[in-house]
Amino acid sequence: MPARACGFRAHECDAASPPPWSIKPRDDVVTLLNERQIKILVQVVELFNRTGEPVGSAAVSRAETISVSSATVRNVMAELEGLGLLHQPHTSAGRVPTASGMRLYVDHLVATGAVVTGPHADWLVTLSELEADDVGQMARSAGLLVSQISHLTSLVSTPRLAAARLRDVQLSWLSEHRILVVLITEDGRVFNRVVRMEEAVERNSIERMRNYLSELVVGRSLVEVRRRVRQELAASESRYRSYVRRALSLSQQVLDLATGAELYVEGQLNVLDFGELAHDIARVREVLRTLEDKERVLDVLDRICEARKVQTLIGSELGLDLGDDLSLIACGYYREGEQVGLVGVLGPLRMNYARIIPLVEHTARMLSKELDELS
């Protein structure tokens, strides 16, 4: 998957007077926070993640890590609200973290090493079942397991087939005008298409066509093969035997289709359990429609850089116009040192980041290990 610059921290809200709770914390705001403000922000977020309810100052002051009065906590929470990190949904209610506040909280977890823990025993055993003979089956299995463990929606992308090198090509004669083409990549994926030929193909010419295409494609990527086919087609057709012309026509049709990455989405219906969406059927439909648009989701995953660590996109950072109350945790997985896809979990803003981040990271590592063993 081609790497792109990590731009998900740069998304900004529209300049036309956005609500203050939708603005990302500026670097100067972050550096101005003192230890007490950070502790109280962390406590508010963790209480909110646990209950889903606005958090009051009394609940925060009872925490072991907070050694100040409820009145002091109330004042600090008001300061954090002024900085756009907390939001008070109603005048008489407690406060909830904004997307900006959650962004700061997650960065704090990562910076302090709070999520750098050993694998959780309850999901380590489940992930040990991750076995398959090719990257597609492995990605699908990983997505299913991650969704079951997290009770959220998992996203796993595979390498774009255009970049994969081919190990073999097979042709099967179905009729004079229908040929089954099977492409097998070096990482074990299988792509097949039934191609309709305008010019009739005799059964006895299939083997010669296969031999010719095998010499043309084996060991090359689809991008390289497409370039070679176009060059061959651009040459004078008069010099080709009929089976070569048909083989080139056949391969051109297949290559035009076999280029995209695969995206496996598991646990879509878990969206119904997201507290932020549970009472908004229109939002649920919108999220489910977005998940069905796999090219759009792949574009988001493509924006994640190749840094060998987990990345968290919160709210508008997703770039899917789904509001500020969803998050995506994703991590790349590798084959022989090259990133080939990503594992991700889509969930509500209120999720257990300290648990989900290491789950995603460990799954990516396991996929990398299994793929290296397939090599």
UniProtKB/TrEMBL annotation:
A Pfam family matched in the record: WHD_HrcA
Any Gene Ontology biological process: negative regulation of DNA-templated transcription
Record bears the keyword Transcription regulation: yes
Organism the protein comes from: Lujinxingia vulgaris
Name of the featured protein: Heat-inducible transcription repressor HrcA
Entry similarity comment: Belongs to the HrcA family.
InterPro entries noted in UniProt: GAF-like_dom_sf, HrcA, HrcA_C, WH-like_DNA-bd_sf, WH_DNA-bd_sf, WHTH_HrcA_DNA-bd, WHTH_transcript_rep_HrcA_IDD
Role according to the record: Negative regulator of class I heat shock genes (grpE-dnaK-dnaJ and groELS operons). Prevents heat-shock induction of these operons.
GO MF annotation terms: DNA binding
Keyword field: Repressor, Stress response, Transcription, Transcription regulation
Gene3D superfamilies tied to this protein: 3.30.450.40, Heat-inducible transcription repressor hrca homolog, domain 3, Winged helix-like DNA-binding domain superfamily/Winged helix DNA-binding domain
Record-annotated Heat-inducible transcription repressor HrcA C-terminal domain positions: 140-357
Domain Winged helix-turn-helix transcription repressor HrcA DNA-binding, residue spans: 33-100
